């Protein structure tokens, strides 16, 4: 049998530049992994744009919630007056508006909005 010598590890780097380089490399790798970018410049641009998208999404969600509240008021007024909860001709106008503005996917988006706004009363 052969004996093995104990394994020793090298002391941690004491040069601050070495530590900073390692951290920057890890940060760049992390940014690249998060964004799929291959350069730091592209990763930075993507991160900034994603932050803007997050802000827009927050606003869109708020607007959808506001739309749902307004739709509830309309439905309550319609039902109270003896009408139906849903006005299909109005929904068709909305579907057409979204399709004209956004193409075929606009129809799906409008259907989702209408679904969110129906039946709350």
Major sheet characteristics: none
Average the pLDDT over all residues and give the rounded result.
83
Cα-atom radius of gyration: 28 Å
Q: What is the H/E order?
A: HHHH
* Beta-strand segment tally: 0
**Alpha plus pi helix count:** 4
End-to-end CA span:
82 Å
Helix content: over 70%
Tell me the overall shape.
elongated
Task: Output the structural class.
Answer: mainly alpha
Structural description of this entry:
The longest helix has 41 residues, at 40-80. The termini are far apart. It is built from 4 helices and no strands. The protein is elongated. The relative contact order is 0.07. Residues 7-12 have low confidence and may be disordered. Helix 1 (16-35) crosses helix 2. By secondary structure, it is mostly helical. It has helices at residues 16-35, 40-80, 88-102, 104-117.
In short:
This protein has 121 residues and is mainly α. Helices cover 74% and strands 0% of the residues. It has helices at 16-35, 40-80, 88-102, 104-117.
Describe the secondary structure blueprint for this structure.
Blueprint: H1 16-35, H2 40-80, H3 88-102, H4 104-117
Key structural traits:
single chain; 121 residues; mainly alpha; 4 helices
């Amino acid at each position: 049998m052969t004996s093995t010598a104990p394994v020793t590890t090298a002391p941690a780097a004491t040069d601050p530049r070495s530590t900073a380089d390692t951290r920057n490399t890890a940060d760049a790798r992390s940014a690249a992994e998060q964004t799929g970018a291959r350069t730091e410049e592209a990763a930075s641009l993507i991160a900034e744009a994603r932050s803007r998208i997050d802000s827009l999404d927050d606003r869109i969600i708020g607007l959808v919630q506001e739309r749902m509240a307004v739709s509830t008021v309309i439905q309550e007024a319609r039902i109270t007056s003896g009408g139906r909860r849903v006005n299909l001709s109005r929904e068709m106008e909305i579907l057409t508006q979204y399709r004209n503005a956004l193409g075929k996917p606009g129809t799906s988006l409008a259907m989702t909005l209408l679904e969110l706004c129906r039946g709350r009363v």
